[in-house]
């Protein structure tokens, strides 16, 4: 990503950030799951047609997840050419299952042909196929297809959206970018790109991400939960089996809990131990039912944003502030995809040319 953005050197260029972040996170997930990527160039981009089809399936799935069709409300319209939402969903599900099964068969074929994979380079599918050999009734192909798709769906759009919100907030608050750049310049050697081992030395970068997650949590209502027993919560009787939705967005933007909650103030998280502040801040939920992808997200997002802040100067397109309107979807997407201008910082030109 850094190498692609640095192609224009010290001249400003316009970048469409939403697509860039989506491509980055999808590639990361697919390298983990199946040992390949679907965007970019190089040794892992051998089948461009397969990549194009997979991109379409993923994008169609995310589009349908936050949309509906007028034909479902007025069935008569289906007679004049409007396909029902259910038909569209079933079509995408069929394509998705086919693509997932092809990934499984590809890794299975390698195993049958005696291809040895180093332990640390095993993909998620490799691990699941190993388990299938010992517990075939549980680790069926259907189970594996569902498992790996959940990883793609949960690990792609959420992290990409968080990075897009973070960059939008940074562009509207350029003084925060300068402060973050200064921290990275002090903590990371001048002749190399920020690395995962540096992340714990960048507390202000973590403050930026936490403040972004507070204002724009990827799961504004968390994941639906269900009460396992009858209980009383704050005087309310909650019967067993009741579906519970936690309005995390409401809690994290409540003026009774947060000083000036609509203002972007990363400094509010300075000095706090860990990432949570009681139950006021829980963008990943909490406890045993918290998001299992938190560890991955809190490595990918800081590393990607840290690299963008370290390597580039950023400007808004025009004088107006970035539009922060929220769109529709299962997560909390921006209504308008983020566009920005960036140029490579002179201090990093040498090592970027060697990437």
Automatic annotation (TrEMBL):
GO biological process, one term: secondary metabolite biosynthetic process
UniProt cross-references to Pfam families, sorted A to Z: p450
Gene3D superfamilies: Cytochrome P450
Lineage top rank: taxon: Eukaryota
One GO molecular-function entry: monooxygenase activity
Record carries keyword Metal-binding: yes
Residue positions binding heme: 291
Residue ranges crossing the lipid bilayer per the database entry: none
InterPro entries assigned to the protein according to its UniProt record, in alphabetical order: Cyt_P450, Cyt_P450_CS, Cyt_P450_E_grp-I, Cyt_P450_sf, Plant_Cytochrome_P450_Monoox
Keyword annotations from UniProtKB, A to Z: Heme, Iron, Metal-binding, Monooxygenase, Oxidoreductase
Cofactor(s) it depends on: heme
PANTHER family according to UniProt: CYTOCHROME P450 81D1-LIKE, CYTOCHROME P450 82C3-RELATED
Family (UniProt): Belongs to the cytochrome P450 family.
UniProt protein name: Cytochrome p450
Source organism (scientific name): Thalictrum thalictroides (Rue-anemone)
């Amino acid at each position: 990503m850094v190498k692609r953005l640095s192609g224009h050197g010290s001249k400003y260029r316009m970048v469409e950030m939403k697509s860039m972040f989506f491509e980055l996170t999808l590639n990361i997930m697919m390298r983990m799951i199946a040992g390949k990527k679907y965007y970019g160039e190089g040794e892992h981009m051998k089948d461009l047609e397969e990549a194009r089809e997979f991109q379409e399936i993923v994008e169609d799935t995310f589009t349908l997840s936050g949309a509906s069709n007028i034909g479902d409300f007025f069935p008569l319209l289906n007679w004049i050419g409007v396909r029902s939402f259910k038909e569209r969903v079933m079509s995408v599900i069929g394509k998705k299952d086919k693509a997932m099964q092809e990934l499984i068969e590809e890794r299975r074929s390698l195993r049958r042909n005696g291809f040895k994979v180093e332990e640390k380079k095993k993909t998620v599918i490799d691990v699941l196929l190993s388990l299938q050999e010992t517990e075939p009734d549980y680790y069926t192909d259907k189970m594996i297809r569902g498992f790996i798709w959940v990883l793609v769906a949960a690990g792609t759009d959420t992290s990409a959206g968080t990075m897009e919100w973070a960059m939008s907030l940074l562009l509207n608050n350029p003084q925060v970018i300068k402060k973050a750049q200064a921290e990275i310049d002090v903590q990371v050697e001048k002749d190399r790109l920020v690395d995962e081992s540096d992340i714990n030395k960048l507390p202000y970068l973590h403050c930026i991400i936490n403040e972004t997650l507070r204002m724009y949590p990827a799961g504004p209502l968390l994941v639906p939960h269900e009460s396992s027993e009858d209980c009383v919560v704050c005087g309310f009787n909650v019967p067993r089996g009741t579906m519970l939705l936690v309005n995390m967005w409401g809690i994290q933007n409540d003026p009774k809990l947060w000083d000036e909650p609509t203002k972007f103030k990363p400094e509010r998280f300075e000095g706090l131990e860990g990432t949570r502040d009681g139950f006021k801040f829980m963008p990943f939920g909490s406890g045993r039912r918290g998001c299992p992808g938190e560890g991955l997200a809190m490595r990918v997002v800081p590393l990607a944003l840290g690299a963008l802040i370290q390597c580039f100067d950023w400007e808004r397109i025009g004088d107006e502030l970035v539009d922060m309107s929220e769109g529709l979807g299962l997560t909390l997407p921006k209504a308008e995809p983020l566009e920005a201008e960036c140029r490579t910082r002179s201090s990093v030109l040498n090592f970027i040319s060697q990437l």
